[in-house]
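Hello Y.,

Per our agreement to keep a running log of every chain we model this quarter, I'm adding this entry. I've kept the format consistent with earlier entries: sequence first, then predicted structure.
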Amino acid sequence: MKLGSKIYLAGVVIFALIVGFILTAPDHIFDKPVKPSRINHHWTIIKASKTINAITHNNSTGYFIYKGRPMGFQYDLLKEYCLSHGFSLNIIVEDDLHKAIRMIKQGKADILAIDLTLTKSRKHQMNLTEPHGYNHQVLLQRRKSTNDNSFVDCIIDLEGKKVHIQKGTVFKEQLEALQEQTGTEFEIIEDEKHTTEELMVMVSEGEIDYSVGDERPAMALKTFLPNLDFSLKISPKQKLTWALPPYEDSLLNNVNSWLTEFLQSKEFNKLERKYFTTAKASHQNDIKNLPGKGGNLTPFDDQIKKASEVVGWDWRMMASLIYQESRFNPETVSWAGACGLMQVMPETAKRMGVEDYTSIEGNLIAGARFLKWLDNQLSETVTDSTERIYFVLAAYNCGLGHILDAQQLADKYGKNPGIWTDNTDTYLLLKSQPKYYHDKVVKHGFCRGIQTYEFVLEITERYRDYVNLISEG
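Predicted structure for the entry above:
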């Protein structure tokens, strides 16, 4: 073969190899890494629905029920954000940190609102907001006493001891780093059953000697666990953030803009004092009042459950109504003479066949029977039993006549009198205007509907909090 032919053939082979390489080689060899398009569907959905779906923990800094009220640093912070934007708040409780992070990474919620420690790896996995606080990891132990030499002043004092931590937390990594740095040998026990705050209680009660947690929850619980010591810091100062789904830049920018301004406000300072520096009143600082999850909502849970059977409601809905009426104080008496947990009027109790309406049990039964009576009166026009609860609550507040009027108006003006939201409630609100309370279909005149509208809204929103945090049984 001639030299020219050989050169030509070699050129063809080389060209084929180059083309093959280009067609099969990974893209990253030729191009810079390309991030997914930064779609902002969450922000679009939020603006359309006016609802924030937020994941948080049921703990002393997240979200809990205390004396009938939903509370929590994260909860209050979220409420302030939603209030400033005209959004509603839907809480998703997830105490498993790994599950919560996975949910936000998969876009199953808008905000993960917890004290999430900012780390380099997390920064690459999710959108993290500006810090809303700062924290140290601390060793949790009982206060130093003269009869106990187990108190740890520095890490090397942990030699040969056992430290219990919640499984899946960053505490294990920090403790292992300290073992490496100090040469101290101690056993790290990962607990799959208990949260970090439950381990704090176990330390305080002497079930275990040592644990590790964040300084902020320990500060929040110091009133309830006065013998808990968290003075030994085992980490540098760390930033605490919220997490948002990856590539949701519009939502991130909006939250960051709000946080930057709100963190400088008096309202934020009040929140920090409320949860982290102000000692609770002495009558509240018993461990039985520790914020948490369970079935004990009031001292009257059993009586409320029994009375709720009369009307066929979830007892937590009835409890939310009672909180609205009396704040669970059985001694409450209104200016109009309504009394007790359910603020029953004497004439109403008499109609319901209850004489001893001032006792706790009698008051609850009288109230429940009245709710059942209202339910029966509305059953023909509101056939769905769940939907009917809104109407019954409204009638309990302002009287059945005004609700019947609002239904008549809804029917006249093309709305559904068997639906509450954006239908009958609209015309209850309009009953404060002459055009509507003078309408021929109205039999009971003027009504300040905004009070009843807010009454129903607050009770049903609180009920959702009770369902999140209080067991049904």
